Amino acid sequence: MEKLAIKPGILGGGLGILAGLIEMSIGAQILPWIGNKESPVVLGLITFFLSSIALLSVLSARNHVKLTNDRKLAIFFGVLLPAVICFTTVGRLWYLPGSLLIMTCLLLAHEFWFGQSKLSSPKIISRKFWVNQILGGIGSLIILVSVALGFLNSNFALFQSEILIKADHFRFEILPMDIVRFTNLAGGVTTVKDIEVSLVMFVYIFLILGAVIALISSLAKSRIFKGIGGILVFTGLALFLFWLPGILAQTEFPSVGFQNIIGLLGMGWYISAVGMSLIMITSLFQFQPGNTNR
């Protein structure tokens, strides 16, 4: 089983490095294969770098017999995050290496936490969860559910405001994954215009990655990686505040003071902030119910 877990990862990492090199060198000539990316050289470099991390993570699992829980999570995330992120950087060229790396993640999870092999020490997931793990998991799920609902219901947008511009009634919303939507509500006909803004996508990537890392780390009882996940979510929320004036400047939203913009944040931002607070609190403090004797 150990070889079964390692070999797909080595092959996937190697193919990912090759895909990055192809995108850097001839990406402009094969745009349909790379998802019609505007910056193939930069994205190819990112793919090369992330694929190298995934390959090194897999190799580090092969070279160590006994691994600490945090080391296992570092290896797992070192494979999982490149596998997921590179689907957005290199298009079709990532289908095969990405699938192999995801398969490796599943096999590593079995080896590390559900199986009994050379790579695994006693199971870390028990039937009894401490309060901090439950709350950390709830905080992560709150963020993920809020983002998911943002696709279905604009009430869960990161920003939402209805204002008057030259006697016309407009609604502005910032939605996943990269949509700034402004709707003209004046008159009998409602018109909607969506603008794609890459900065919004970066914010949502931070939120989703941070929440996923915190959720898995809560299940795996790693306060260090749960804290890292919380920091990523915090970074996404802070960057959104910093970038918000520039994001709105790409629409017809009038120039207003920063304090006024803060007051117009959507329910999605505040829900994510609550989830981030639960993650950070439970990563810093250890809460245990009742008797703590083992």
Structure write-up:
The protein is of the alpha+beta class and about 290 residues long. About 60% of the residues lie in helices and about 10% in strands. The chain is built from nine helices and four strands. A four-stranded antiparallel sheet has the order 1-2-3-4. α1 (about 1-25) packs antiparallel against α2, α5 (about 130-150) runs antiparallel to α6 (about 200-220) and α7 (about 225-250) runs antiparallel to α9 (about 265-285). The longest helix is centred in the C-terminal third of the chain and has 27 residues, at about 225-250. It is flat and about 70 Å long. The two termini are about 35 Å apart. Mean pLDDT is about 85; it is low at about 115-130.
Q: Uncertain regions: pLDDT < 50 for 5+ in a row? A: 117-128
Shape: flat
Largest sheet: 4 strands, antiparallel
Please state how the strands of the largest beta sheet are arranged side by side: 1-2-3-4
> Count the helices. How many?
9
- Tell me the series of helices and strands, N- to C-terminal: HHHHHEEEEHHHH
Helix/strand/pairing class, anyone?
A: alpha+beta
- Percent helix, as a range, is 55-70%
**Overall mean pLDDT:** 84
**Distance between the ends:** 33 Å
* Backbone CA Rg: 22 Å
Strand content: 5-15%
* Strand element count: 4
Sequence-ordered SSE layout with sheet pairings:
Blueprint: H1 2-26, H2 40-62, H3 69-85, H4 95-114, H5 131-152, E1 159-165, E2 168-175, E3 179-184, E4 191-196, H6 198-219, H7 223-249, H8 258-262, H9 267-284
Antiparallel strand pairs: 1-2, 2-3, 3-4
Helix pairs in contact: 1-2, 1-4, 2-3, 3-4, 5-6, 5-9, 6-7, 7-9
